[in-house]
Design a protein that fits this description.
heterodimer, A: mainly beta, 6-stranded mixed sheet, 5-stranded antiparallel sheet, 11 strands, 56% strand, B: mainly beta, 7-stranded mixed sheet, 0% helix
């Protein structure tokens, strides 16, 4: 089955800095890569996603890049704010029936 | 547009008992997936329902079962509860034509097995 590795497990930055979280996956046929933000006690919230026919996608301060050859994708957050503090999960859609395989999560802390 | 809702919010059960969790999909969404999230980990796929049938299953035993109803709402049933079943159970819905990829999560049901 699909294997998703996410790094780092924790990330601490100062407000205004950039944050980068990386994920690698094993199934080269995977074609959909979402990122979720989960605040303490809340539901995972879809913040951005990318499909395999696109190399990069941006939404305001958030961007995702995909390297299909190397089988890795990254989340980039610029001008971080304290409210960006949360656990971030990458996920990969399997080649059948909508199964998302999640990474282990990254605890992002943005210090004011 | 109505988001994904789940009930109950919290539940405490004893080992060996059975539990039913409920999920109402987001308006216009016809596919429901269920996930188990243990503390400090990412969600683990249990199964997905589409057109009232199980569309795929993760690495969970048969005592985890589900249903989907004509209005696309869904239930997750767990029999013979074990202590390790204690977790946050999340359902996620997705809209037609997406192949079940864009999945939007409900708030979850926190199950504690004692």
């Amino acid at each position: 089955g699909e294997n998703v590795e996410q790094h780092p497990s924790t990330l601490s930055v100062q407000e205004g800095d950039s944050a980068v979280i990386k994920c690698t996956y094993s199934d080269s046929a995977s074609n959909y890569f979402p990122w979720y933000k989960q605040e303490l006690g809340k539901r995972p919230q879809l913040i951005i996603d990318i499909r395999s026919n696109v190399g990069e996608k941006k939404d305001q301060r958030i961007a995702v890049t995909l390297n299909k050859t190397a089988k890795h994708f990254s989340l980039h957050i610029t001008e971080t704010q304290p409210e960006d503090s949360a656990v971030y999960f990458c996920a990969v859609l399997g080649t059948s029936y909508g199964k998302l395989t999640f990474g282990q999560g990254t605890i992002l802390t943005v210090h004011p | 547009e109505t988001g994904v809702t789940q009930s109950p919010t919290h539940l405490i059960k004893t080992r060996g008992q059975q539990v039913t969790l409920r999920c109402s999909s987001q308006s216009g969404h016809n596919t429901v997936s269920w996930y188990q999230q243990a503390l400090g980990q990412g969600p683990q796929f249990i199964f997905q329902y589409y057109r009232e049938e199980e569309n795929g299953r993760g690495n969970f035993p048969p005592r985890f079962s589900g249903l989907q109803f004509p209005n696309y709402s869904s239930e997750l049933n767990v029999n013979a509860l074990e202590l390790d079943d204690s977790a946050l159970y999340l359902c996620a819905s997705s809209r037609p034509g997406t192949g079940g990829d864009e999945q939007y999560f409900g708030p979850g049901t926190r199950l504690t097995v004692t």
